[in-house]
Amino acid sequence: PDGASGSEEVEVFPDLQALEARFGLVPPRGRVLQAYVTGPSYSIEVMGRPGNYTPLQVTNLEMDPDYSCKRVLAPSTLPSDLIGLFEEMAVTLGEAVGLSGIMDVEAIHHGDQLKVLEIDARFPSQTPTAVYHSTGINMVERLAMIFSDEDKSELDQVPTRPIRGSVLEHIRVRDGHLAVCGEQIMTEAGPLHLEANFFGADEALTNHAPGKDDWVATLMVTGSDLDGARDRRERVIREIRSRFSLKSYDDEYPDGQFGEVQ
User: In the predicted model, what is the mean pLDDT of the chain?
Assistant: First the structure.
């Protein structure tokens, strides 16, 4: 950051040699270095109080070209051994910060390791809905239990229903085009309402109205497993495109998500 002007200056270096050529072996004071790590992204919530934490379901996160989350998938496709490691990491981080309540941890699967990207010590904005539809776990209810006199052992109970697949994503319809976009489109859309059975989706949070040709929606689609949810999601997209005669569609990813910085 540029302390003199209050603005932020960001520089990207493709390798360590380029960094050292710019700054030498020790970057100047006042700068923060962050590694650019490629690979798929994952998220997990952890809830509780010091000495008693419960990790919840791991979800896959998919990004738009600006690295804003556009889609959440559950259950995760992360290998089971890494899911266990991720759960341990979340509990360890909860203990380290003295968490009382809920937070989520995001990580990137890079090589054979999970690289922690960020910790959000707040109620998450997207993943709780996907987790709820997949597992039946209501994070709001469990958060209330943490600060009530309820039996804390209930927090560790496994849901009685089988885990389902769920896909949550954000779409925008405008000018005859459907695009899957990052979550920021929902904050810019104005009044939203919840609508069940939205063009085949289980439900949607949307500003759509009859006759409106510029609208957004967060779609929630489930299936018996993740593949089933993905298949239903494809049918929902086809139905929306057909119903509104949308000629074009895009679902873009970051250029460098799985490759080197150019």
Answer: 88
